[in-house]
Structures are given as C-alpha cells and as structure tokens.
C-alpha cells in the first residue's frame, strides 16, 4: 500500500469509526476555521493526497484524540520501489498534453498555433521613405 492509499484509509476509517459523513466533516471543519466544500473534500479524500496538517484538522474536527498507525519499514519501502512512496504515479497532465501535442505535430495532425507575439512594425527603408 502506498502512502496516499494509507492516508486515505486512515481518514476514512476514522470517519466510519466516528460515524461522520463527508458533509458533516465539512461542517465541522468550517467551525474550526478550515472551510472545505463537500465536493472538494470528497475529491481530496478519494485521492488521498493531502498534507498532514489537513489530516490533523480532520481528526481534530472528528474529536479523535489518539491515532495508531503502522508505518512501513525501510526495507518495505525499498522493496516496493522508491517511486511508489515519493512520486506521483505517471507524468502530470500538462506533461502528457505536451507529449501528445508533440506526437501529433510529428504526425502532421496538428496545426501550429498562431504566434501570440505582436508583429514588428515595418521599419521604413530609404526606398519607401
């Protein structure tokens, strides 16, 4: 299990254990001064990509006073591969889009966008002056 999945599992388990829905958690976070829309909260939890401070805010909002977690050993992290624990899986969306555009340009399936730079004013020459 990677760290993102583990973070997601910890938060969801505490929500279930305390009988708190996502909407209720959003309301409780609001009272703590951490406004979070229900939709964005659901997305954040489902991805498992959030800061430890956010996890602590959620736990405080649910009234959790103690939390016991198991942390993988160094050997487990090495065996699973460094990338699994420290990097986002796969390239970012922007990088993927750039790569697709480059491939399409090579295949001649994409027209280059117009230049966004302004055209230089024509400098009068001695013949046109």
Overview of the structural elements:
With 129 residues, the chain is mostly helical. It has helices spanning 3-17, 22-31, 38-47, 52-62, 74-80, 82-86, 93-107. Helix 1 (3-17) runs parallel beside helix 4 and helix 2 (22-31) packs across helix 4.
Shape: flat
What fraction of residues sit in β-strands? under 5%
Main β sheet profile: none
User: Percent helix among the residues?
Assistant: 55-70%
* Secondary-structure-derived class: mainly alpha
List the domain count as a whole number.
2
> How many β-strand runs?
0
Radius of gyration: 25 Å
Q: Count helical runs.
A: 7
- Helix/strand order, N-terminal first: HHHHHHH
Low-confidence stretches: none
CA(first)-CA(last) distance:
75 Å
Mean pLDDT: 79
List strands and helices in order, with pairings:
Layout: H1 3-17, H2 22-31, H3 38-47, H4 52-62, H5 74-80, H6 82-86, H7 93-107
Helix pairs in contact: 1-4, 2-4
């Amino acid at each position: 299990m990677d760290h993102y999945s583990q973070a997601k599992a910890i938060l969801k388990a505490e929500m279930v254990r305390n009988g708190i829905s996502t909407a209720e958690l959003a309301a409780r976070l609001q009272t703590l001064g951490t406004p979070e829309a229900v939709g964005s909260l659901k997305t954040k939890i489902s991805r498992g990509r959030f800061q430890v401070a956010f996890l602590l805010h959620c736990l405080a909002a649910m009234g959790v006073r103690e939390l016991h977690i198991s942390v993988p050993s160094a050997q487990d992290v090495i065996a699973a591969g460094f990338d699994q624990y420290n990097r986002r899986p796969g390239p970012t969306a922007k990088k993927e889009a750039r790569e697709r555009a480059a491939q399409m340009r090579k295949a001649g399936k994409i027209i280059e966008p117009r230049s966004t730079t302004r055209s230089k004013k024509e400098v009068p020459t001695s013949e046109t002056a």
